Inverse folding.
């Protein structure tokens, strides 16, 4: 939403006529076209990136490959960190250009939109840093494999851990089995008498 506010306010109100004689629209940020273009570009990249990662989050549990899940989390981490940097540059660039702007009648018409773009660029830094931290936590949880492989566990947190299957197809009612190769092969072990019928 912050990205929509930034590029929407720049597109709608940050191109103004400086005087009535010249019909050309100029960027409100110190007449620097690069400032408006950069704010619009970062806003659009962030908007489409949010849509993409929202779809990835929706389908994350359906990704069966652990490697693909790890790649999705790493991509989210990298993209969030990169966008944090881009928003920081956008905030600094727009604030610097706004500080150098001389106020005139045309500039005062779009001043609120320029301030909104600068303010929401700052808020976007905080949001994208928080998303990067969240992606880093998600990646660190992935080393535990609980994030990347959740289908085999029971949904009840108090349920016991399922035992190793025996492979015979018939489940045993015994909880514990004797260890292998400990049985004696004697037909008549010591101390044991065969009952007479």
């Amino acid at each position: 939403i912050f990205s929509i506010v930034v590029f929407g306010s720049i597109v709608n109100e940050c191109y103004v006529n400086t005087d009535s004689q010249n019909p050309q629209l100029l960027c409100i940020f110190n007449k620097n076209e690069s400032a408006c273009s950069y704010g619009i570009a970062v806003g659009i990249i962030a908007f489409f990136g949010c849509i993409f990662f929202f779809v990835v989050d929706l389908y994350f549990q359906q990704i069966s490959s652990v490697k693909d899940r790890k790649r999705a989390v790493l991509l989210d981490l990298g993209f969030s960190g990169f966008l944090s940097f881009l928003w920081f540059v956008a905030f600094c660039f727009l604030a610097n250009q706004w500080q150098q702007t001389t106020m005139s009648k045309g500039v005062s018409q779009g001043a609120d939109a320029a301030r909104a773009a600068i303010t929401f660029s700052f808020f976007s830094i905080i949001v994208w840093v928080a998303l990067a931290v969240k992606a880093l936590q998600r990646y660190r949880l992935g080393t535990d494999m609980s994030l990347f492989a959740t289908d085999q566990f029971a949904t009840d947190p108090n349920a016991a851990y399922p035992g190793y299957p025996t492979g015979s197809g018939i489940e045993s009612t015994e909880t514990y089995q004797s260890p292998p190769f400990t049985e004696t092969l004697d037909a008549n072990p010591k101390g044991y008498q065969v009952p007479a019928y």
About this structure: The mean pLDDT is 79. Helices lie at 2-13, 33-58, 66-99, 105-109, 111-142. The longest strand covers residues 15-16.
